[in-house]
Structures are given as C-alpha cells and as structure tokens.
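Pair request: fold both.
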Amino acid sequence: MKLVTWNCQGAFRKKYPALAALRPDVAVVQECESLERIPWKQGNAPISATWYGEKPTRGVGIFSWTGVSFQVSEMFDPTIHYAIPVEVKTPIPFHLIAVWTMKHADWRLAYSGQAYRALGVYREFILSADTVILGDFNSNQRSTPRGRIGNHAVLAANLQTLGLVSAYHFATGEKTGMEKTPTFFRGRKAEQAGHIDYVFFPARWIRRLKRVEVGASAEWLEYSDHCPVVVEFVPRSPYSMV
C-alpha cells in the first residue's frame, strides 16, 4: 500500500501525470482545484477521487490510481482548515485524515493550531480504527511560535499519545525539527527550505513499513514548491493481527 502527500501549488490538471506515475493507492493533494476543473486531458485519470475546498481553485483532493475506494466521514468538521476524515475501504479498512493547515484570524490558532484542534475533534474517529494522518501541516518545531495553541512540539506529543508515528522520522532516525531533507522550498529556492509535510501512521504498522521517500527537489520543483512524501507498507493479511 502506497500513500502520498503532495502540495501541488495549484494547476493540478497540468501536473497530475507526475503523481499518477507513482501509482499511489491513496494520494492527498493540497492546493488542488475542484474535480470539475480537471479534464484529465493527459490520460491516466485516477480511478477514485474526492475533493473538498471553499474555493474551486484551491482545496484538498484525495485520489487513488489503484482502485482503492473511500468516503468522507460524517464526522467531518469544515470549520477546521483543513483536516478531512476519510474512511478508506480496502480488504483491511482504515481511517485517514487529509491535512492542509492554513492561516487563522487568531494567529494562535493558525497552522499547527488547526491540526491540534483536529486531534481533539476527531479523537473518537482516530481511536475507532487504525488511522493515518498525512498532509501539509505548514509547521515545523523550529519555526512554530511558542504562543501558538498547539505548537508543533505539543502537536507531535499528542500524535505520539494517540499511538501515531512519523514515517520520515522513524525511517531516518532524525529528531523533530532537525530534518535533513526538506519537503518545502519557499519560492522554489534551496536556501529557503524546510520540512513541513508529514505522514503519521499507527505504531502497530511499524513491522509493515517498507519505504519512506521524499521526492527529489531536482525533479519536483519543476511542478511545485513542495516535494511529495511517499510512504509504502507491505500489505497485511486479513488473518494477521498487525
């Protein structure tokens, strides 16, 4: 099972073949236009797709190129910008929260503050099934203001309490805030880079973790100021306990 998060920086209709080539089972795409605006003229359209956004030019798209089906949970709270709870229907179903955190009128609630709020609102959803939380958090421990409600350190601690593991940090052994591989390049410039995109998965999936990769900037900066984070798991048998 291959999961991908990628902020495409808009115009996904022109850029989707790069993501489709990865053949993700589930991909979360931030800054994606609505499905009605994507004609899939270059072929290789996703088999499953859903989208949410308050503006048709910018939202969160969720796609599968392998036929995995999913639906937005009834627990969805659109006042959180954005954290979308999704029920993924595979032979072994699981939950997923698609994240794209944004600014807020109260700066203390911006970015990581929105993700922190989502953990509280969706706590029952997270605990009721194996849950993956992935996306563009727009947050890093080294750059989050201390006065923010749910700063990055607090957010990371709460994710750990919920039994979730950062795929990148587990695979590399790097500490939070000390990441060596950026996922974001402001202005697409190497000197303004940071690590703000994450995939958090259940600790009980650790033995199934196969690969964690951040897309190479030399390839992906052609399309966006973000590089995708790709996490792949070995399939679990329906008879397995983990």
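--- second member of the pair ---
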Amino acid sequence: MTAPSIAGTREKNLLLALGFCGLDVVLMAGAAWYADSLAILSDLLKESTDFLAVLASFLTVLALRRAPDHRFAYGIGKLENLVSLFIGLVMVGCSLFLLTQVVNHFHHPVPTSGTLPGIVIFAVYALIGFGICTRNRWILRHQHSPIIESQARLWFSKACFDSFMATALILELLFRTQPWSLYLDPLASLLGVGFMLHAAYAISSSSVDDLMDAALEETTQLQILNQLVRHIDDYDRLHKVRSRRSGSQIFVEVFLEFSPKLHMAEAQERIYRLRSSIRAAIPGAEVSILPHTP
C-alpha cells in the first residue's frame, strides 16, 4: 500500500474513532444520570478525556499535511510525538482521579442501582474498542505513526476497561444480596486504572525516544547494514550511520569514504544505487549518502 493511501486510512480511522468516542460520551452521560455507580460515572469522565485526546490526534494529522517550509525544513512530524505525550498525560490525570474515587468507595462502600443501561453500553463498546485497536495495528504494520500507536493502545485499554466494567456490574447485579458485591464496583475501576497507567507509560516512553532523536530499532538498522554489505564494492570504508524518526518519517544518513581516484559522475552513480536500495528496503525513508574524508 502506498504512503498517500496509508495517510488517508489513518485520517479515516481517527475520524471513525472520534465519532465512536463522541457517541460513547453522550450514551455514558445518559447512563450516569440514570444510575448510581462509580464505574459508570468514572467511565463518563474517562470517555470525555479520551474524546479530547482523539480530537487532538485528528487535528494533528490534518496539520501534518502541511509541506515543509524554510522554518521547518524537516517537516513537523515531531508534533505527533508531542500529541502522544499529551494523550499519555491525559491518561495519567484520569487515572489519578479514578484512584481517589476508588479509595473513597473502598472506605465507604455503597450499593449501585440502575446499572443495566451501563452494562449494555460497556459490552458494546468493548467490542468496538477491540475492533478499532485491531484496525490501528494493521495500519502500524504498513507505516509507523506515533499517533496511531497511541490510539491502538488507547482503544485497547478502553476495551479492556469496558470489559471489566461490564463484568463487575453484571456480577454485582447477580449477587447484590451479598456484602462483598459492594466492592466489585470500585475494584473494577481499580483494574481500569492499572490498564490506563500501563498504556500511558508505553505511549510516553516511545514518544520521548523519538523526541530525543533515538536511533531506529535494531531490525530497521539491520536492513540498512544489509544494503551496505550488498554494495560493499561501491565504497572504500563505512564511517558511521545515523538514523532517527520524526513522526512517521524516517531519516537515514550514511557517511561513506570513496576512492579519491573516482570521477564525480562515477561516485554519484554509486551513491544513487545505494540510496535506491536502502529506500526499497525501508519504504518512505529519506536517505542521504554523504561522502566522508579519512
């Protein structure tokens, strides 16, 4: 699949997720109004922050359409990493709020009521969440994108959270006469906090690496070295290889020493062959072959 079609798929996927998030906020607001449940109220607040996070991601992808200019010659791909960090911070803030509510309900347990609409919404959105997560991971197999990676983790955590909420509320409804059932509602919220914190850590750690211009992962670097070995007769010595990501864009710089007896035309032809082979191995990469002196 070509880069433009992947970019279009990425935007459509975010727009689809935005629609589902908006609908979820409306439905959970109605369920929270009808029910007396920590799980449903906390999910309403969580879904509201998720909606803002997905909206920010969608607007960022639209902004990334802008072509590089004299001020941002490498483009604004790192904006994806900044937004991913924002999504991680939103998750952390939401998790801390839920944690305080869970502690309060463990100290003062109260029975829930009117949870049936919430159970139905949780079950439906658990299926939707796993579906969107699967679609995002399919996109990531074709093109790296910090925003889509963060969205995959976000929807996976949302689906797991909704699954736990639905299970806890069903059990509480079935065993409402038992004293221990009062703790199912805050317990499910506590498990949801754990999923959200894990997703926030994974998003933030990967985004920080790219913002600090960390080298590409080992598998991608091996692809570069493989092409250098295949064309080892085209240059005299390899000095160094530098690589980094900027959003979904990959930049590779290879410093090579050529024979001083080569004419410029011959050196350019060898550079072209090597650059083309690396681009074929890593589609979409911006490759620079730089002659280097001893």
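Observation on the second member. The chain has eight helices and three strands.
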